[in-house]
Structures are given as structure tokens and as C-alpha cells.
Design brief:
Elements (H helix, E strand, L loop, with lengths): L2 E7 L9 E2 L4 H8 L3 H6 L2 H8 L3 H14 L3 H12 L4 H13 L7 H11 L5 H13 L2 H18 L1 H17 L13 E2 L13 E2 L11 H13 L3 E3 L3 E2 L5
Antiparallel strand pairs: 1-2, 1-5, 1-6, 3-4
């Protein structure tokens, strides 16, 4: 019998609650897409506007939306794009998708390699899941996981992915609407309707241009605080029922 692990991850109250167990379709879909209901309730358009200057956030958002709709192929593709910009959450989601075979062929060794990459900064949530995956692998899978991991680090590790993010961030900053001295003023987006300035319901996007979001050192420091302060609950090991 395989052990059933429940790992609850909290990031601003809107993260997945993955279940590491024998991969049947129902359990996998529930585990990897656990944030579906929340994603449906939130305002996707507003969130995508807020994320458009940061490719890691934007592709992560698209990946989460696709997963919420059960479109695993698109979810995999979007999370992989976000992963190129040092997005540890997206790398974590890819590890789960490989583990369960959603959006990609099931591959537990490659799932571990992605989990190890997601845990590169030693965020507790991801490090715990990585170690639980390792315990489930056999010796052949462990050997291949270590080989696969090096190739992933060469393309997606912080050493190369953070500079890639910083280049994209610089491009976004140059495209900001505002004065030549850098003052963006008050930026708002209006839904169709009467042309009234600052009408009720307008979306204020000024926050997306806060200075700290365009300072990569401060941005990554904020990410570290969010992830290291996240709540982690590891449920007790249980026996998963045998399939008939």
C-alpha cells in the first residue's frame, strides 16, 4: 500500500492543497487543481492586468486558470513558461503534474527533479514535498531524478532564471505609461459604460507600478518573506485503499 500524504500550502490564502498518493484521475484532479473554486470567484481580468509587467506572475496566473478549468495541457504549458522566470510555485505545480500525469506523461523521477528545483531556495513547503517524493521513489527512479535535475537547473535554476526575469522586468519598466521622469500618476482601467472620470468600479492599477516591484532585489526579498512565512500542515500518513 502507498502512503497518503496531505500537504497544505498557503500563499496569500490561494494555493493548491496537493495530495501525494496513488495516482487515480479523481484524486489527481482534486489535488493539483485544488484552487479551482477560488480562481473562479476572483476577477481574472483585473489580476492579469496587475501581473502583466511580471511574466512569472502572468504565466502563473494563466496556468492556474487553465488548471481550474481542467485544461491540463494549457496549464502545463503556462506553468512551464512561468518557471523560466524563476517562479518557484509554477515549478512546484509542474512537479505535481508530472507526478500524477496531468498535462504530461507520468514521470515520478522528473516530478522529483522539478520538486527539487522548486525547493532551491529552501522554502519549507516545497522542501517537505520534495522529501516525501524522494521517499516514494525506487532506486532506479532516484538515479534518473538526479540526472534529470541537473539539466533543469541549467535552464530553470535561479542562476539563469533570475537574470531572465530581470531582463523582462526592465523591458516592462520602459513600457510604463507616464512621464519621462518616471511618474506614472494615477493609472486606471474602466469597464465599458458612461465616460465618467474615476467612475465607481474603475480598477486602479497604480499598485502594479510600485517601485519595489521593479527592484529585483526587493522583489525577491518579498517573495522570500511570503513563502517562508507560509503555513505548512503535513497530515499523518494513512493507507490508501487498494484499487480493485
Amino acid at each position: 500500500m502507498k502512503r497518503l500524504l496531505v500537504l497544505v500550502i498557503a500563499l496569500g490564502g490561494a494555493l493548491a492543497a496537493p495530495v501525494l498518493a496513488a495516482p487515480d484521475d479523481a484524486a489527481a484532479a482534486a489535488a493539483v487543481g485544488a484552487d479551482s473554486d477560488r480562481m473562479q470567484r476572483e476577477h481574472f481580468d483585473q489580476r492579469s492586468r496587475m501581473a502583466k509587467t511580471h511574466p512569472n506572475e502572468l504565466w502563473r496566473l494563466y496556468g492556474s486558470q487553465a488548471a481550474a478549468q481542467g485544461d491540463w495541457d494549457d496549464a502545463f504549458r503556462h506553468f512551464r513558461r512561468a518557471a523560466r522566470y524563476a517562479d518557484k510555485y509554477s515549478q512546484h505545480r509542474l512537479s505535481l503534474m508530472y507526478w500524477y500525469g496531468l498535462g504530461a506523461s507520468q514521470d515520478r523521477a522528473l516530478a522529483y527533479a522539478w520538486a527539487d528545483l522548486a525547493a532551491e531556495r529552501q522554502y519549507p513547503q516545497f522542501a517537505i514535498l520534495r522529501e516525501k517524493m524522494w521517499q516514494e521513489l525506487d532506486e532506479a527512479e532516484r538515479e534518473r531524478a538526479l540526472r534529470e535535475g541537473q539539466a533543469l537547473y541549467d535552464q530553470y535554476g535561479d542562476r539563469v532564471a533570475k537574470p531572465r526575469f530581470e531582463q523582462a522586468l526592465s523591458r516592462s519598466k520602459r513600457e510604463i505609461t507616464g512621464s519621462r521622469t518616471g511618474d506614472v500618476g494615477r493609472l486606471q482601467v474602466f469597464t465599458p459604460g458612461p465616460a465618467r472620470l474615476f467612475e465607481p468600479g474603475a480598477t486602479d492599477l497604480t499598485a502594479m507600478y510600485h517601485d519595489w516591484r521593479f527592484d529585483s532585489a526587493r522583489y525577491w526579498a518579498a517573495e522570500d518573506v511570503v513563502w517562508r512565512d507560509g503555513n505548512v500542515e503535513v497530515g499523518p500518513a494513512q493507507n490508501a485503499p487498494r484499487s480493485n
